[in-house]
Amino acid sequence: MDVDVAIIGAGILGCTMARALARYRLDVCVLEAAHDVGEGATKANSGLVHTGFHPRGGSLKGTSCVEGNVRFDAIADELQVPFERVGALYVAFHPAGVEHIAEKRERARLNGAGDLEVVSGDEARRLEPRLSERVVAALVAPTTGIVSPFELALATARNAAANGVRFEFGFEVDAIERVSGRWELRTKDGRRARAPYVVNMAGEEAALLDVQVHAADIVVRPRRGQFVVFDKQEGGLAGKEPIRHVLFQAQETDEGGTLLAPTVDGNLLAGPTSENVRSFADNATTKAGIEHVKRVARKLVPDLDFGQVITEFSGIRANIVNVEKEKKDFVVRVSAPGFVSALGIKNPGMTSAPALADRALRLLGEQGLRLEESPGFDPRDQGPEHRRPFMDCAAAEQRALLEADERYGHVVCRCERVTEGDVRSCLHDTLPPRTLDGLKRRLRCGMGRCQGAFCTPRILEIMADELGCAPWEIAKGERGGRVVKRQVKRAWGSR
């Protein structure tokens, strides 16, 4: 496979880079080790579009965050991705916390986010009535937003694919070599891709690939963050106000960056922890981690009902460890002729992705890549395959869908209101899922309060029918574990 530009990695940054390059007359491919987009840190992202008051003032992390934040309204509109600016409160419980607020306010100003307002504890509770009585002050960040990270990555990838970018899944780059003025990217099983320009956005693997073309000067280690997810009715049954803002706090002792945030799907998210782990594959949740999240979240909102937690998950960040804390920053650089790497991209990497992709694009141009705009580029996500699920469609569209296929009237996931027609349509999308988890992330089937107890058998049958295989041959997720164990095969077949 010979192309003009090869992008390694189909996380949110790699997909954003692909869409940026799709605007030009170029042959572009994305090489992804997994079998779906967003299988790394992206799928376990908190879904926040940050304002820019956390990163060091004037850093690439901070300025790219602010630039990306400003562009999210247009991006969400073009890609038809749900996005809401709910705003954030960064709260303090004591005088030292008020000093932290002043520091965050100055960081926001230096990063270009403007002069954020500081309010009293009483005013903060007027904005968020369930906030702790101990809160004495808060920094208000109205531009903080929420989005579905996987839906954003998928829509970005689909738009890139619709504009000519090729996605090669299961392509795990193992070796990189310069051959006759081009980069040759090889897998262990002998697959190859060649390109004069390469963009290394492989997330956790980016630093390991970078040392094949550049001196080893950046050390990246895994850092885990655990979350809990509440049911959509958290507080509702008890007549409590829903949490409407993202709630951060001035950290004390071991509290890390634990926060509370509403999601675009109506749930409430609490987390993450911040733990060093040995492997990027160590995305387990632990009793100690979840207890930590509960303790810190209840400090923010004391009446949280953890009896309404429906699931837990964790994500792994690529954390640069060989740089002093106050000098850590995102790294987007030319590591070798025609070879651009993005290293140590963690929070707020999703927010920063548009600006970081533009930075990588400028570096490619400086390296000689010809950027001639394509008149046929369409930035909008279009076509019937990109519509919302049946139950979210207008009545007229629902009638038309039912006339075309009555299976849109068969509900298979009651919690998230997903129909058989939705499932079958999704399996024939531009970038279709091939695992149960991939389908779940696209349609949310199995992500409601029953966590798939009702719908999983029926969904497996539909997937098997569409994919031409047996239900027990369908993998749960990227690691290949089967949903149906061998001893169930005979019983399933006799139904």
List low-pLDDT spans.
none
Using only C-alpha atoms, the radius of gyration works out to: 23 Å
Major sheet: arrangement of strands: 9-2-1-13-21-20
Helix run count: 13
What structural class do you assign from the helix and strand content?
alpha+beta
Q: Tally the beta strands.
A: 23
- Overall pLDDT confidence: 92
Helix content: 25-40%
Q: What gap, in angstroms, lies between the N and C termini?
A: 46 Å
List keywords for this structure.
5-stranded antiparallel β-sheet; 495 residues; 6-stranded mixed β-sheet; globular
Would you kindly provide a written description of the structure presented here, covering whatever features stand out?
There is one protein chain. The longest helix is centred in the N-terminal third of the chain and has 20 residues, at 60-79. The protein has a six-stranded mixed β-sheet. Strands 14, 16, 17, 18 and 19 form a five-stranded antiparallel β-sheet that branches. A hairpin with a 5-residue loop joins strand 16 and strand 17 (268-271). 30% of the residues lie in helices and 21% in strands. The N and C termini lie far apart (46 Å). The protein has helices at 12-21, 60-79, 95-111, 121-127, 149-162, 206-210, 287-300, 349-366, 395-404, 420-426, 436-443, 456-467, 489-493; strands spanning 5-8, 28-32, 48-49, 83-84, 88-92, 117-120, 137-141, 145-147, 166-169, 175-179, 182-186, 192-195, 197-200, 220-230, 246-249, 259-262, 268-271, 275-276, 309-320, 331-336, 339-343, 411-413, 418-419. The protein is globular. With 495 residues, the chain is an alpha+beta fold. It is built from 13 helices and 23 strands.
